[in-house]
TrEMBL record:
Residues 85-225 form the Clp R domain. One of its GO terms (molecular function) is peptidase activity. Keywords: Hydrolase, Protease, Repeat. InterPro entries: Clp_N_dom_sf (IPR036628), Clp_R_N (IPR004176), CLPT1/2 (IPR044217). This is Clp protease. The keyword Cytoplasm does not apply. The lineage of its organism: Bacteria, Bacillati, Actinomycetota, Actinomycetes, Pseudonocardiales. It comes from the Bacteria. Pfam families: Clp_N. Gene3D superfamilies: Clp, N-terminal domain. One of its GO terms (biological process) is proteolysis.
Amino acid sequence: MIQLPDLIAAVEGEADDVLGKLTRAVELSGQLSELGDHLVGHFVDAARREGLSWAEIGESMGVTKQAAQKRFVPRESPELTKPSMDRYTQRSRRVIALARHHARFSERIGTEHLLLGLLDESGGLAAKTIAKLEAGDGSTRLAVLHRLDKEAKQRPDKQPYTTHCKKALELAVREALRLGHMFIGTEHILLGALLVEEGTAAAVLNATGVTHAAAAAHVQQIVNEPRPALPGA
């Protein structure tokens, strides 16, 4: 259990002046609130996988079925309001832009377009992880392009992100928090997409040998690798 004295000590140790401490306290409060939201979301997802109804989940949370669904079921929309894009790295922001580009002839922006964006951002850890794990060189890109060839080519005026795509980005934040990272990198987007088993990206990746377990292990190995010491350090 997190105790208030521990939080106060953490803030005291991270800032020198009173206003700096206040700013850090506000930031930390937001982070704790987000952690709480994702903690509840994790167990809501687990309950749904066990076949529990939204009415049962809402009753357990002390809210109505409709309130539980509104809070935890992503809806198609053209905007990405959660999480804040401020925490996305530059590479991750480019992935989102590339996903929209790949979906320019599609009715919706889906996880398959997100996957192509990850592959295009070749310098990112996600693309490197896929290249390391996929069964054959370029097999993931070929498989997802094959899927896209079968889609209707008709773009609406307001092109929405699918519920699966929005869920993948929500889970990307959860994966970052699980790993103790306060930024959203391409690797987190990959892990989030792999967790949305109903999405096209997860289906393609699993078919080419890229599983969540393998990708998570590779990401952690790379992130935890000791950095070479700088000369004179």
